[in-house]
Amino acid sequence: MRTAAFLAAAVALVAERMVGYPDWDGDVFWVNRLTPAQYPAKLTRIRIYFPANGDIAPNTQISLVFGTHPSGSEDAISPSRMRPGYGWVRELGKWTDFDVTSDAIESGDFLVGFYTSVSGGPKPMALDTSKSAGKSYVSKDGTTYQTAERAGMGGNFLIRAVATAGQ
Questions:
Q1: Residue 28's Cα: distance from chain center in Å?
Q2: Alpha-carbon Rg for the chain in angstroms
Q3: Distance CA 153, CA 123 (A)
Q4: Rounded Cα gap, residues 28 and 140, in angstroms
Q5: Which residues pair with 33 in a beta bridge?
Q6: What is the pLDDT of residue 2?
Q7: Alpha-carbon span 10 to 144, nearest angstrom
Q8: How much of the chain exceeds pLDDT 90, in percent?
């Protein structure tokens, strides 16, 4: 077996800006749909970049979400296939790893992300705007997701998956 971090399309790993929901009080879910390079694959970690100039403070607890998207298609992602987890944002300005455990998949994608409560429009999510892979999703209720493009954000959330792949 080998371990690899992956993203379905080749995109830069630079946060050009931070995004959030203006004038929104409540939870916001930030999720990427990521395709492993090889199957079977088993998710072992979620990696999220929290910039130093973002709206999440060090030592903040966040709620993780992760799961599978067996079809691998661009259809709506299903929250019923996601599980919760928890982690702490220890440092800013670098990638933070959160250990998770998932079932192995033989096809399709992993769903990886987090949610946090916001008030008044903070911008907790780092966004790479160089080339959108169309696999970043956002939700205000954890049930109905839309792509970052459709939500007017564009780009790719700086959320990655680390998985073991192969036999």
A1: 12
A2: 15
A3: 11
A4: 5
A5: 111
A6: 54
A7: 27
A8: 33
Strands 25-34 and 41-50, how do they pair? Answer: unpaired
Compute the distance between CA of residue 158 and CA of residue 84 in angstroms, rounded to an integer: 19
Q: How far is CA 50 from CA 7, 8, 14, 44, 161, in A?
A: 17, 21, 11, 20, 15
pTM, full prediction: 0.86
10 or 31, which is more confident? 31
Which amino acid is residue 91, in one-letter code? Answer: E
If we measure between CA atoms, which residue out of 31, 10, 8, 30 comes closest to residue 109? 8
Instruction: For residue 7, name the pLDDT band (cuts at 50, 70, 90).
Output: very low
* Burial of 52 (C-beta count, 10 Å sphere; 0-12/13-18/19+): exposed
Spatial separation of the C-alpha atoms in residues 123 and 28, rounded to whole Å: 10
pLDDT in tens, 97-150: 999 988 889 999 999 999 887 776 667 788 888 777 889 998 988 888 988 888
Q: Which amino acid, residue 131?
A: K
One-letter amino acid identity for 77? I
